[in-house]
Amino acid sequence: MPTGAVRRLSARARTSTVPEPRPWTADRRDHLDETARLLAAVERWVHAFSHLDPASLRAGIDPAQGPLAGMPFAVSQTIDVAGMPGPDGRAASRDAEAVARLRAAGARVLGLTTSTPYGCGTATRTDNPRGSGYTPGGSAAGAGAAVGAGIVPVALATQSQAATLRAASYCGAWGFKPSHLRLPREGALVLSDTLTDLGLVAASLEDLARVLPVLTRWREADPEPTDEEGRRRPLRVGRVMLDDGALPRPRTLAHFDTLLHELGTRTAQAGPTGPAIEVVENTTELLALDRAVRHSTRVCLDILAAQSGPQLTAALAAGESDPRLHELVERAAVVGPSGLVEALDQRRALTRAYAALADHVDVLITLSTTNPAPEQREGTGCRRMPTTASLLGVPALSAPWLVVDGLPQGVQVLGFAGRDEELLAAVRLLAAAVPGPSTRRASPP
Asked: Which tens digit of pLDDT belongs to each residue from 145-202?
């Protein structure tokens, strides 16, 4: 038998013993005991963490500590945790603001998760818990793997292009990228003032809902949309391709088409008391957006390179050798100041075009990534589809609603800037209509 076949068979056998992502439960002590067991059984081959504090699992739990009392969470290497070594080996002197807020609510840091060099390098040593030998993503690889393996219910990461959403999609977890600057990024590695945001990978939608009010001022949105007279109306979900929705394989698109069809079918069966969902496709406005964002990844990359260039140049001078950093520095030189101005002008035009869609749809829906995770040897995967949310500064959520060829495939739901709560409420409605995992694995044939 060929070596590759042996490795793939062994990968499937190993993956079958790994649990699904585990939401935080009321049985907190039992949850922490299971976390300790998983660390011993899984972390030795997943390698999600660069630094661990197992003692955090043994501390007592006092509900008076806050709403997240006892909840373990992980933090990407791109975010400071006091006393824990960052990518350069030096320990941070204080917690990043997001870490401090979670600790103040009673949550505890289990450790730092792996990231690529400076959050934009080539790869990590982390394996994908949902499919060994496949990539878990790039700079949020460890965060996605830690949640995907069930070790922690929540992990903090950053996203300047696609990191958080891509890792969540590949590892079968939930991923959230907020409106630009909605979550505190003080103490995080900021590559681009225009693009970089804090992100979350979570085991469930409920875990996101627990953590977000701790991280930022949060108001609950109406669970269902209403018209100007206050009457309930369907949730309008616009299907888009983004950049580059032409890349998904036919089988991936077939699963996505089936999901959208089932959403419509279940909505019709729900009757007047059920959630009403209207999938909108191929309208003039949606097609115009897809045409406008067709090359938006290039615009995003120009902004990232130009704004991160000085920081990455200093890193290279200090001895960093990752080839991806060299590529970005070289691109920054080509873009130059005038190219950055042009890219920012293009971003503003795209942002205006996107915002105008709010008159026609409530949220947009597409795939989180072009396809499921590729094998490690092929790289960290395509950034294009999840990059749009970073470029436009809008909130986006990756939901683990599909399984394609035995691997997770996220579905991306995008909202409008500053309306993160409405996005979460819309995803709740959609989640109630999504068929169960066994159904999604079985169709299409």
From this structure: 999 999 999 999 999 999 999 999 999 999 999 999 999 999 999 999 999 999 999 9
